[in-house]
Amino acid sequence: MxxxxxxxxxxxxxxxxILVPAGGSASGRALAALDAxxxxxxxxxxxxxxxxxxxATGPERDEYVIAVRQFRQQILPPSWPRTTVWGYxxxxxxxxxxxxxxxxxxxxxxxxxVTWVNQLVDDRGDYLPHLLPVDPTLHxxxxxxxxxxxxRHGQSDGGPQGYRGPVPQVVHVHGxxxxxxxxxxSEAWYLPAxxxxxxxxxxxxxxxxxxxxxxxxxxxxxxxxxxxxxxYANDQRSCTxxxxxxxxxxxxxxxxxxxxxFYLLSGDDLPDAVLPGPAPxxxxxxxxxxxxxxLMIQDRSFSADGELFYPGGYSAHPDGPIWVPGYSGxxxxxxxxxxxxxxxxxxxxRFRLLNGCNSxxxxxxxxxxxxxxxxxxxxxxxxxxxxxxFLPEPVxxxxxxxxxxxxxxxxxxxxxxxxxxxxYLVNEGPDGMYGGGRxxxxxxxxxxxxxxxxxxxxxxxxxxxxxxxxxxxxxxxxHPRxxxxxxxRRxxxxxxxxxxxxxxxxxxxxxxGRGRPLRxxxxxxxxxxxxxxxxxxxxxxxxxxxxxxxxxxxxELLGRGHSGSAQPGPGERGWMDTVLAYPWEVTRIKxxxxxxxxxxxxxxxxxxxxxxxxxxxxxxxxxxAAAGDGxxxxGDGxxxxGxx
Length: 644
Ligand SMILES: [Cu+2]
Hints:
The protein is mainly beta.
């Protein structure tokens, strides 16, 4: 009998894009998918996440208490059903919960302390099960395994929704230079402090207790049950970060259910008014107009009743809900609403673009005709920054590539656009997996009538002068580049059949230059020494583009291409925490590791990350020898180009 896993593996092997049709069937509950083509576009204004209210702003730090809760939000247009989601908000401000959550507004050099509380409980304090089907057979948090079998493969009970127990959570601020105990390690999860936790369940992940002790040691503060307190030093450059869940083997569903927000770090950038502003700040009066706007772009599918749809729950197969190798939603959601509209004045706007999709790649442009393909851009998107801060100089893009988890800090200048004009942010990325190349040539672009559209701009006259500097004349702050590397690591991205599925694995290179795939629990190989700078050469042996993310660091891209020596694109010459590794290429990055302890590096296609495409990254104290395979000592390595 051919299992569904084998079918999925076969279609993955055939390079077919996304494998699972939206909508479901069988197992009694026939649930129609909502037809994305019937959802009216541009009928709701863009929601701009406000600033997260702090509970204290003392002389030493800002303090927040932020919970994740379940609530309903109007994501589809008004008169359509509301959607049950999860999202973050301040426990002191019940009205603050949203998808995306309010943005944490932080200053360089001023620490932020957040107590993150898992409040996925109902009114009586009983735990809420997941909104989406959960595959318990992956290597995942597995609370039902008890302390002995947590953070391991679990067992299926054959139910169509899989694991229905209390849901683990742990928050990672993506791109932050965080101490290990505050990084949101995948095995530092915690269940809600619910009344009815089953007594034999593990209530925390296997790393929680160690990190709780470390945090208590230097702060004197002990984490309460159902929570973790993390501190962010903000000792990095001004940049656009974001926060989201990072639970082992469950990140894809935890993020898809909604909880995510921006973490906007500023302070060492440019004098006021050089860049378009303002952005939301705490206590803004209503109707403040903002010219620095974060845009969290996500794809989601819905059932006919307006609830989130993610595949796996309605399988007729006795295996029950299963992991899928990738999923692209049928609608585009920006800041928590499908296809919103933004009225802009004839002036410059700064947009913090984030691809918050699980596995969809975006190729964005600003056009006058929303459905014409190839898209004909009418305004450049001026990129001024990447994940970790400003570029050396502004870069105009007609078509901007944005992989999952990547951010682009951008300026769009509407000054010369006649009032009354309607423009569109469109997407020519694929509706399935991305292997690189050009839309319309190497792959069909996303459906121009649905996922090929993102946001509408309606241009109006300016109500005041625009003091910001035109992007073509902007001088951006410069930052020193990293010094020479002490070590070169040769790493790999690999495909393997496992349990009937094609899965993706990180790994090292063997002595003959072949990929040697490794899983999350294999012996640690990436162990830089504290204070060292390393070059990582990541060879991609798969047919897919993978967004490779390292925790702790912002790195430099040195080169890519077959030998790793092709120059990075102009938009890739700044600091990054997530880099696109193209098929059959070597992606060469350089990073400086200056915090000791246990971290991770992984693919940020969340379906890949959740099924073993993640590896430990342990920074060893100085004095010990750098350990692990795949490394060679000395210099920037044999490949030419890009000493940085
Ligand atoms: Cu991947």
